[in-house]
Amino acid sequence: MRFMKLKEVIRVTGLGRSSVYSFMSKGEFPQNITLGERAVGWLESEVLEWMQDKLKQRDETSFKR
Mind telling me which Pfam families this protein's record contains (predicted)? Predict the structure, then answer.
């Protein structure tokens, strides 16, 4: 189990900072975890699962055409 900081989440997903927080507020992206007074992180496995779900959505959409 590993935590990812925001910069890594951005690098891995290709999302911008505001998109990460916007998707989180809509319940469409994993919630961050408070690591300390001024630090948050995301569970790597949850971010990777979110990415896998996006691939599945793409693949399901492309097969319907």
Answer: Phage_AlpA
